[in-house]
Amino acid sequence: MLLTSILLIPLVVALLCLVARQRILLTALNISGFAIGLVLGLKLFRTVLAREGAAVTEWGEFLRADALSAWMVLLISVVSLATALYAVSYFRRDLAAGEVTAPRVREFYVLTPLFAAGMLLVVLANNLGVMWAAVEITALSSVLLVALYNHTTSLEAAWKYIMLGSVGLVLALFGTIFAYAAAVGPSAGMALPSFNWSRLLEMAPQLDQKLVKLSFIFVLVGYGTKAGLAPMHTWLPDAHSEAPSPTSAMLSGVSLKIAVYALLRFHILSAACLGGEFSQHLLLGFGLCSMALAGPFILTQKNLKRMLAYSSLEHVGLICAAIGVNAPLTVLGALLHMGYHALTKPVLFFAAGNVQQHYHTLDFRRIGGGLAHSMPATALVLGVGAVAVSGLPPFGLFVSELTILAGGFASGNAWVSGVMLASLLLVFCGVLIKLARLILGPARAAAPPREPVAAGRTVAMSLPLAALLLFSLWVPGSLLQLLELAANIIRRTP
Amino acid sequence: MNLPSIEISSRLITLLATLMLMLQLLLVVQRMLISNIRLFALQSLLLAVIAAVVAYVYGAWHVLFVAVLTLLGKVIFLPWLLQRLVRRIKIEEEIHPFLGMPASMLICGALTVLSYVVARPFTSLARLGNNTLPVALALLLTGLFLMINRRKAITQVLALLTTENGMMLAAIALTTYGMPLVVEIGIFFDVVVAVMVLGILVFRIRESFDSMDVSKLNELKG
Amino acid sequence: MNFSPEVFLSLSLWGYALGAGGGLLLLRRERLGNLLCFGVAAFSALNGLLAALLFLAGGAGAATPGFELFPAPLPYVHISVRLDPLSAFFLLLVSLLTLAIGIYSLGYARGYFGRKNVGVLGALFNALVLATTLLVTADNIWLFLIGWELMALAAYCLVSFEHEKAETRQAGVLFFIMSHIDAVCIIIGFLLLYQAAGDYGFGSLHAIGARMTPGRRDSAFLLFLVGFGIKAGVVPLHIWLPAAHPVAPSNVSAFMSGVVIKTGIYGLARVTFDFLGAPPLWWGVTVLTVGTISAVLGVLYALMEHDLKRLLAYHSIENIGIILMGLGAALIFLHTGHPLLATLALVAGLYHTINHAVFKGLLFLGAGAVLHATHTRNMEEMGGLISRMPQTALFFLIGAVAISALPPLNGFVSEWLTYQALLQGFGTTDSLMRLIFPLSGAMLALTSALAAACFVKAFGITFLAQPRSERAAQAHEAAPTMLVGMGLLAGACIALGLFPVLFVRLLDPLTQQLTGQQVSGQLSAAHGLVLTSLTERSGTVSTLGLSLLGLCLLPIPFALSWVFGRGTRVRVGPTWDCGQRTLTPRMEYTATGFSKSIRMVFKALFRPHREVQREYDFSPYFAKTLRFDSHVEEVFEQQIYRPVRVMILRASRRVRALQAGSIHAYLLYIFGTLVLLLLLLAT
Amino acid sequence: MNPDPLAVLAQTVLLIVLAPLLSGLIKNWKAKLQNRRGARIWQPYLDFVKYLRKDMVISEHASWIFRVAPWVIFLTALVAGLMVPLVTAQAPLGLFGGALAVVGVLALGRFFMALGGLDPATTFGGMGSSREMTIAALAEPAMMLAIFTVATMAGSTNLGQIVLAEQEPGWKFLDAPHALAFAAMFIVLLAETGRIPVDNPSTHLELTMIHEAMALEYSGRSLAFVEWGAAIKQLVLMALLANLFFPLGLAPGVTLASFGAGLAFLAAKLLVLAGAVVLVEFTNSKLRLFRVPDLLSAAFMLGTLALVSTFLFR
User: Fold this and answer.
1) In 3D, which of D130, D138, D190, D83 has the Cα closest to residue C442?
2) Least CB-CB distance to A180: which of B160, B179, B190?
3) Is B217 within the bounds of a domain?
4) Of C73, C189, C186, C69, the residue nearest A400 (C-alpha)
5) Is residue B52 classed as helix, strand or coil in its secondary structure?
6) Residues of C in contact with B222 (CB under 8 A)
């Protein structure tokens, strides 16, 4: 009943929010829903650990949660809880400023749990077709979230997001069908071969090799578009910068990783069938390409949220490349990196949201600088968040990045780590130059009056940051054990 | 289910698939929006017939259910919805796509050849009609090319739906009994909801931008 | 609780952490925050000093076992520190500087009351010292890199502490980018070592070079040389140093110039002597050449500066060059198989490291006091401060004499040792390569003479003659705590200068670890009074003897003036002014004027630009206003760094065009990728 | 070989007495060459005594450095002198420092003299200090190369050891390295003691004087010690040059008889060297300030050639 309850809670919250009127009720519903989700996530985490990594299945293998999906469930619930907490003060200010109408806020509170439910379904569904449908649900719910404001730019971003997303999903469906067709051949005698991932994994060696290659290519381009890998990433900066900050936090924080999760399922399948090289090289290539591409865009960036979006592009590229290298340390590092990035990126988007509400623009030149004087609390959080996202020591991203690099060296492909380090350096310089100019400097005359200290908002904003610092200094043994189990699933070692 | 009916049905399916490809090429050429929608409806009809034939030959009743769904959804409901949208927005004609007629025809030909080349190693697999997979791939690739080539939002949505038809054809052709019902329904509803969301967006874009020309949507740079 | 070095070390580390935390808590109450932060920093520094002295004096050759400071966040990431002679020596250096700067800052930070948040300054300073101490005593690659990046981060925040000025922000960003570039180089270097060793601990990395392929070993060395070279401020990679040090608060620039650039030297020494094993010849030659070039160019550019703190920053580059000369010579001797000479050169390099830390710290603290009093860094607006700030002037003079390598102070002793090492190096090989030693010796002589000229200018223009501006006229003596801080370092300068033999004995365990030789016995003669270069015959010097001799001879001039000039009186009168009315401060020699002759001599290098704009009403002979501007072209900045930056930005703008906004282009990218992959699959 | 007080005292007296005589001699000879009668040889003694008797006028802007500088100049010259072997092969204070220490101590004297020049806020003092430090900076590498040549040939920087090594039988007197090194040291001698091609000791013309400009503000006792210190420094450098390259007559031990013979030899060598200096002064005119670096770079080249020749020609 655990998995179904994890799925049902957000759906119920979504339905209730359809009915509820007052904003307080909506926020309470959302926060409590996601809090319960987190508790259930932790319960799932403990049960998976208790079963030594054997998968928790319900509805006759329709829902299945192994170590990898348990880790994903944790990330989804943490990010959505943080978003819900921040959204309270965010929309209070937006409503006060007349930026958005009450029905649209209600639309936000309905769609966000739906979005979370979609993501949870993706990670819990065992059937690849259902997984595809779940990704489609996340796409559709997040499109309307992106188009929440009625500016022309957010409509444009939403349109590009839905068009490119749909094309990606059609290709992903093609890939899924080819994978399914590969299973039809060998099991001619039996009845309809099951579309479940676990069964397909058992039959992997007998699958038709050519069809599996074709399917991985389509899935790579399809889900790669949703994950924002390099040449297919063009929708990412538009969607993440035009969406309301809570939504872009969820988009950047975890929805990219859901698409990467889907890609990983097929990567494990094709590795089991064809032997790792084919899919690993592709993942490595696309990952490095995304990392390399992020640098130039950040160096010449003019908009704060777009810069954060490109930083997410780089981190997703790093995760894919690390999994492509497929050394024990790099895969563990990649999973650890997913966790730390999921805690860091939302904080930056929350701070960017504050800046947008205060200055009504995100353009570096128009804000000019002196953020430390006009918005001291937000500037501090933005600064500390930037330090974390650039992978500097006190925070965990440094440890995960260095683990990946050490893994790259240990497994003999040092050049990969070299390219990674070069692009990380380029992005670091870009982020430093832009944010130093934004945060530091004298108070500007044209800047709006000093921001009143909203204690509630600052706490909500910096909660994930505190969690990040805690988990940077002390990684609990059980969490590490879960990550090792997940890494074994990805690398298919028993 | 005697032997000759399989022979006849596979030849029939090959014929229908080729017709679908022909319709696709017509779509590429056609300028008028309304006729585009009707062509799409016709193509969906052919797809439904193919599904019916497969269902009849293998007695797989759930494929028949898919045929009926396709008939209701894609042949009747979606074209009606799109036509209503087109009439309310009162834009009739695609002014001038990026590539002229001859160039786009040439590219579609090349794409079809590519899909045949890619699909060649899988001929041993296909049981019903030996060219359904290449046709499906061709539909996908030409549909994508159509999306790239056209400026109007509605045409892009139509192109997306044709690629979706190609996908359904591949599903039916490659797997003797089609995909599990749950998956079919999931996919179908997603497509319908997607079109409705696209409709909402097109309507909102129509309000803020006075035209449906998608190439005007280029404010977000860098 | 036995008083072993580890106890003091952990006390010192936790002390700094407490100071940092305390500073953040006491943001509101400035006075208490200042006292707590810098007081705790000074106390912890004292602990660190005791730990280092106890360890080195104990002569314990073997390193103490590493102990965990903090439970490991990940199984392979251990936060464990270990004291071995090399890290103990640098711990001594860090703690000595922090003690003096801590005391100094108690007075200096008062200047920021009301203006800036002193709690933040104290907390960041404690964090910087904590990171540096962790870095120096780290026991594995992880803690070293964590310490390295934390140091860079804390130093960046401190450099841009007064971020209202645009110059400070730019300098801070440049500093942080360069530190990150050197962090990247070092990470790749260490991962190459990890690849060979399979383990992160420094213990397992010892002499790992033997087990690496020559190609990988050389690339590791080059990466480390570039990485640590950037942090040390070696010439082609030095541009951040003269930008960052002047804009930082003076106690921070003293710490950065005295200690932070020494972490580069620590890294280089640890890697080349401890990890990479027997060096090939070209390593030593590269380090020696780079050292010589840095020394000469450092001092030449220092001479052209009229900003007091930029002048001192360039001098850091010069002294780092001298240290690298010592280390380079030691590497060459290790290759040619002369361990005793290598140890002499190593002792010379490390002795100069601590000397430079002490007198550069003293000079920066002095400059800080001057800046605190006159609110300007421009020497052209100073003058006559010796009568207004007598103690600061005396301490600055001691620092100036020490840095110009004049007997009897410590600069002379370490440069004497370097000369001896270079001199005896000339006789070791027969190949033409031996010419490099005397040539770098001559360049060292040129450097120290130019340094003397530069500090005559710095001291003379800043402290002597008449005040050139109103602000300099109203200068007042620095606070007592600042004087105590400076006095401590001045005392250290004198002690290190007069009693070198004592200090060389402290270096014994270190040379035993790095080159397997102990030379303090050979280096001292006449029961500790005289310093020799390995054999008494090859050269001796005794700074103590010289100063005592000077005192003994003092009665002779007194006697002469008593015998002949008993009844003479001393009268104070106006300076000779060729009969004009009075000598105004505008007639005095200026810093730019003082360095004019050297600018003319080295015209080819400086390419000076000189511009005079005259405004006159009716006749060109009676100018209404005269504007004179002369500056020296920043060769490295213009020729190397600016073109690279412009090229990168132009390439990025071209890549930016990819995201041009048209959805058709985006669809084309996806379509293109798909078609490409399909073609790839089909063939 | 720890220093015995008798030798130290003797050498100190010798230095203090001989220095003014030497500069007086040089002035006298130069005058005679310009067919002038010139001042008496012992004129400098009278000048120094006269200065000692006069009152001292100190500038109002000057600080304690202005008062301390003359003492430092005088004492550093004396200390440097005690480390140079004048009469006996072993300098009385050879243990305390070799060639490098002599250079360092003289540099300390120069440092304080330059500060003394800057202190009374006069333009001439600043100009003198700036030029003095520039020339010293350019002269030092050449001097260091010469010392390196001699030191490597003898295997030690200790002046006593170098002289002893040179007195061994198999020592060729002016072989190539020593000749080149001597030439380089001679140019450096002219630069350091402010002789004609570099600086004109007898002029008060503010555009050309270097050493004189720094001593402009001194009067009375201070002036005496500044001038005396300069004279001692000149003697020390000349003795260093003479004994290092022509170590004739330097007795290894310290006995009364050897002291007398050593003195005679020293006097002869100094006279020859002084003659050379006077000849150079007489035949040349003062170089323009920005031509002096070319002269000093010539000295640097000579030094490098000397160094190279130590192992190329042997």
Assistant:
1) D138
2) B179
3) no
4) C73
5) helix
6) 656, 659
Q: Does the residue C89 lie in any domain?
A: no
How many domains does the structure of chain D reveal?
Answer: 1
Write out the H or E segment, with its range, that includes residue A381: helix A376-389
Q: Answer whether residue A472 shows pLDDT above 80.
A: yes
Give the H/E segment covering residue C338: none
Residue C67, SS3 per DSSP: strand
The interface residues of chain C toward chain D in range 424-463, judged by CB-CB distance below 8 A, are 426-427, 430, 434-435, 438-439, 441-446, 448-450, 452-453, 456-457, 459-461, 463
Alpha carbons A354 and D92: distance in angstroms, whole number: 80
- Are D65 and C386 inside 8 Å of each other by CB? yes
- Domain contains B219: no
Task: Say if residues A339 and A75 touch (Cβ distance below 8 Å).
Answer: yes
- Phi/psi at C573 (nearest 5 deg)? -135, 175
> Which of A217, A402, A418 lies nearest to residue C681, judging by beta carbons?
A217
C567: which 2 tokens?
Answer: 């009844």
Q: Predicted confidence band at B1 (pLDDT cuts at 50, 70, 90)?
A: very low
Q: Which domain holds residue D110?
A: 5-312
Output b/e per residue, C371-398; b: 16+ Cβ within 10 A.
bbbbebbebebbbbbbbbbebbbbbbbb
Using CB atoms, pick whichever of C661, C671, C681 lies closest to residue B145. Answer: C671
Please tell me the total count of domains within chain B. 1
C180-213 burial by CB neighbour count: b if 16+ within 10 A, else e?
Answer: bbbbbbbbbbbbbbbbbbeebbbeebeebbeebe
Residue C498 lies in a domain: no
- Domain-embedded: residue C22: no
Q: What's the complex ipTM?
A: 0.91
Tokens of A247: 């939504």
- Determine whether the interchain pair C660/B117 forms a contact, defined as Cβ–Cβ distance below 8 Å: no
Provide the 3-class DSSP secondary structure of residue C532: strand
Instruction: Let me know if residue C639 belongs to a domain.
Output: yes
Q: Across the strands, what pairs with C570?
A: D56
CA atoms within 13 A on the CB side of A287: 26
End-to-end CA distance of chain C, in Å? 75
Alpha carbon separation from C62 to A360, C269, C453, C520, D67 (Å, rounded) = 63, 18, 45, 18, 53
pLDDT in tens, C207-223: 888 888 999 999 999 99
Residue C411 CA from chain centroid, whole number: 14
Token pair recorded at residue B171: 């599903």
Range of the domain at B138: 3-208
Which residues in chain C have their CB less than 8 angstroms from residue B167's CB?
none
Query: Strands C530-533, C535-541: parallel, antiparallel or unpaired by DSSP?
Result: antiparallel
Residue C535: φ, ψ to 5° = -130, 145
Position B33 in a domain: yes
Which structural domain, as residue segments, surrounds residue C646? 635-682
- Token readout for C434 is 């031996």
Q: How far is CA B136 from CA B36, B55, B168, C657, in A?
A: 19, 19, 8, 35
Q: Is the pLDDT confidence value at C2 over 70?
A: no
Mean pLDDT of chain A: 90
Instruction: Using DSSP, state whether C361 is helix, strand or coil.
Output: helix
- Structural domain total, chain C: 1
Q: What is the pLDDT of residues A53-72, one digit of tens each?
A: 688 888 888 889 999 999 99
Spatial distance between the Cα atoms of C202 and C188, rounded to a whole number of angstroms: 16
User: With 0-12 CB in 10 A as exposed, 13-18 as middle and 19+ as buried, what is C526?
Assistant: middle
Task: Give, in degrees to the nearest 5, the angle at Cα D28 between D27 and D33.
Answer: 100
pTM score, two decimals? 0.93
Closest residue of C to D118, CA-based? C460
Is B222 part of a structural domain of the chain? Answer: no
Touching status, chains A and B (3+ beta-carbon pairs under 8 Å): yes
Residues facing B222 on adjacent strands: none
